[in-house]
Amino acid sequence: MPRRKQSDRETQPTIARANWFSDLQLTRRGLIVRKTGRRIGLAEITPMEFIKFCLYFAVVLVKGLYVRITRPSHLAVWFAPDRPRPWYILWSAMTLSGVRFARTPDKADVAFYFEDTVKGDPPPAGNLVQLNAMCSDISKSRVADVFTDVSGHPLRLDPQAHQGQAVEKSEANGLHDGRIVDCPIRPAPGKTYQRLIDSSDGTTAFDYRTTIIGRVPRFVLVKTKPARNRFSMHNDTVVYRELAEVFMPAEIDVITRFAEAMALDWAALDVLRDAVSGQIYVVDVNKTDTGPAVDLSWRDRSRVMRAISQHFLMMITGAAQLSVTGTASQAARTAPEPIRSGYKIETPRQV
Hints:
Elements: H1 6-9, E1 24-27, E2 30-33, E3 39-40, H2 47-70, E4 76-81, H3 89-97, E5 100-102, E6 110-114, E7 130-131, H4 140-151, E8 164-170, E9 179-183, E10 191-195, E11 204-213, E12 216-226, E13 237-241, H5 243-246, H6 249-261, E14 266-273, E15 280-286, H7 298-325, H8 328-333, E16 338-341, E17 344-348
Parallel strand pairs: 4-5, 4-6, 6-7
Antiparallel strand pairs: 1-2, 2-3, 8-9, 8-10, 11-12, 11-14, 12-13, 14-15, 16-17
Helix pairs in contact: 2-3, 3-7, 4-6
């Protein structure tokens, strides 16, 4: 793949730290992620989950080495301001697809905005296509408003005017602090309020974690947990499902239009289906998703690894071509993701 000179990039190199452990701080209460302040203790990850992650990590490393030797992509991605660590799915996608991490933009074919924050500003990437750069706000309020615009189904509400139950949750990601409240109530600082989407059968709650790659939904992880602990981060079961096994064509179209409206080149959506109306709701967006879920069977983990590597490599290949032939602003208008026809991959399209 031809590369342009540094002068064509019009950006100052930013080097993301390569030391994984510099992201973590050891305290008496467990590990703290410096970037987000999120704690990682026994409440967040059990010893068995940690063992499963280590086994998965080893498998990804072996498979990644095999791909590098047998079919290297010769592509490199510059992540800024942060580089994905092994606990992020993006790291798995890079490793399994044979794509290399670039330390500076002049060594890269594609740029990728990666920052584990709700709101942020992507650093300059010059003429490189910068994936996820057009989505700088994934707050719960923003997600709810965009979903309402796309689907026509309201999700966010005013807790002082609403009568009945609602869900109170933090605007920040990954806190799993949602709770059901009775309205009307006074809004708490840093919280957002949404209508209660009861995705349970009375005993078990269902959550459809839907992976977006190239602004298109690719597959679903169906997660279950007790309805009484629906906001917990721990699952009873997690299984891999194809889109058509979970969503109807019209619902897949809604999810796709939502991903396009949010400009999500890479993300994981939390989708709930209301048990009464049958209507789906996108309630959360995570651009720095971790996993895959440790509760997946090895068969399903293999299916996830195969899917993310194939679709990720396709997205990076398309973006690399645009980096050579176009500019960043042109790339923002010309998406390298494939179209859907019968929900099978075909040819590039324009948005």
